[in-house]
Write a structure and sequence with these properties.
The protein is mainly alpha-helical. It contains 12 helices and no strands.
């Protein structure tokens, strides 16, 4: 677990660096279901892509209840077949909206607002198809609960910045961040960390590097083999000196 003071210092520096920029504006920010849908679109991708996909949804369906009855492949057609996360994202969104409807008899989170903050988080976490990033984001932005949305792209950014070690998994990262960031600062921290993710330099693919190294090693091995083979061939062609026969 990243408990050292230097980790907290690096986290604070990262948040401070990106806290000054204005968060992206998008419609329906006061509607918890809209926040839920947008959070599904933002998970493991960028605000720019999420905003475009959200506008496509709003222009393609009458309301979120109509989105609920759409099949997963229909949702994928709306947001784009090349949208990050593919069909899995669409299946999850549909499952969550359907579960919400079966509990509330409508696509609404109005009843959740009457719950205590801990119960809000439990309710959101229990929705079918949802992931911690989405549940945390809705709890934070719509119900003012203490939560820090974390997905794998944020975890990777924190590793690159030396805030956490690579061995620290997603659940440990969430737990640690929620201890480091105060409830009153959580909203601003989330926006800053999301911007940190979206402005991060592209990570080099290890698999490509491995392949290149592997190819180089193979080429070197082949070259070495050819040299050895040539030496053997050359040595095999050398005439053998015959010993002079002795006189009797």
């Amino acid at each position: 677990m990243p408990t050292a003071e230097k980790n907290a210092t690096k986290l604070n520096a990262l948040v401070k660096k990106y806290a000054s920029a204005d968060p992206p504006e998008w419609p329906d920010q006061d509607d918890p279901v809209a926040v839920l849908v947008f959070s599904f679109l933002l998970w493991e991708t960028t605000s720019e892509k999420a905003l475009i996909a959200y506008r496509h949804i709003r222009s393609s369906v009458v309301d979120f209840n109509e989105l609920r009855v759409c099949m997963a492949d229909e949702i994928q057609d709306i947001i784009g077949v090349r949208y990050p996360g593919g069909i899995d994202r669409c299946h999850r969104l549909r499952a969550t909206l359907r579960d919400l409807y079966s509990r509330e008899h409508a696509v609404t989170l109005e009843a959740v607002s009457t719950l205590g903050k801990r119960d809000v988080r439990k309710y959101l976490d229990s929705l079918e198809g949802i992931v911690p990033f989405i549940a945390s984001r809705v709890a934070l932005l719509s119900f003012d609960a203490h939560a820090i949305p974390v997905d794998e792209q944020l975890r990777a950014r924190l590793i690159d910045e030396g805030v956490i070690e690579e061995a620290v998994d997603l659940a440990e990262t969430i737990s640690w961040l929620e201890r480091q960031i105060k409830a009153t600062e959580a909203r601003q921290a989330h926006m800053a960390l999301q911007r940190a993710v979206e402005t991060a330099p592209k990570r080099r693919s290890r698999s490509k590097t491995t392949k290149k190294t592997s190819k180089s090693s193979k080429s070197a091995a082949n070259a070495s083999g050819k040299k050895t083979s040539r030496k053997k061939t050359a040595s095999s062609k050398r005439p053998t000196r015959k010993k002079a026969a002795g006189k009797t």
